[in-house]
UniProtKB/TrEMBL annotation:
Gene3D superfamilies cross-referenced by the UniProt entry: NAD(P)-binding Rossmann-like Domain (3.40.50.720)
One Pfam family recorded for the sequence: NAD_binding_10
Domain NAD(P)-binding: 8-154
GO function terms (MF aspect): oxidoreductase activity, acting on the CH-NH group of donors, NAD or NADP as acceptor
Protein name: NAD-dependent epimerase/dehydratase family protein
Amino acid sequence: MKKIVVFGSTGLLGKPVTQALIEAGFAVTVMVRNENLAKKLFPKATIIKGDLKNESDVEKAIAGQEGIFLSLSVLQTEKENEWHTEQQGLDTIIKIARTQQIKRIGYLSSLVHLYQGMNGFDWWVFRIKQEAVRKIKESGIAYTIFYPSTFMESIAYQARQGDMIALGGKSAYPLYYIAAEDYAQQVANSFKILHDENKDYIVQGPEAFTQDEAAKVFIKYYTKEKLRTLWAPMFLMKIMGLFTQKFNYGYHIVTALNKYPEKFEASQTWEELGKPTITLKAFAEKIGER
């Protein structure tokens, strides 16, 4: 396989995957809305300006490709009854992929979405993710689905609010934080080694921390400026979620992260796709140098 099209290439997790695929020697095409940004990020990629809502754009992007990689997500501000990339957008991609010579679909899912149905937990975002996995597995196209633990980038770019790292509730289980760069290398390796087999990969990093422990490690080794933690009780997040969609999203994702019984399950992934090497300490130090 040589030619791969990436949907969601300019996102926080899509960028390192796209770069890793390019560096691995694949002929990468990206379909984006912001053409100028994509040209700056991926000067060696073929860039197609388009929108997932437009079927003809998707058809143009997929034509002539051998592989597809999907780095899609539900935005924190989106509501259940709206259009979603992982729902209607995915439907369009699969529909067109079936008519082309696509050999493999790679998809970024999540490990924590497996909390759906545990302890009575039910969230429409996780239902969309469950359905996305089902649709891909029933597409008739060989697939690789990645289920990553919490990304280290979530501390630096999502939990961080100014000079504070926002935390909610208390972790019942430690999380195997993974750096997006290590994950991206595993994705690139999967496209190198796989043929027509179907694969599910748990993606976890070399160390496990509760969210509070992870925040403390990040703060200790991030030297660019002094940071501190800000803790919010879950009941307060739940109340605020009644008034704003972003806090509603935050309440649900933090609840799942705090309660999902994560254990180490990435042995096969490490064996087949390579062992992650980036520690949270090294990640924080590198981010602090930028």
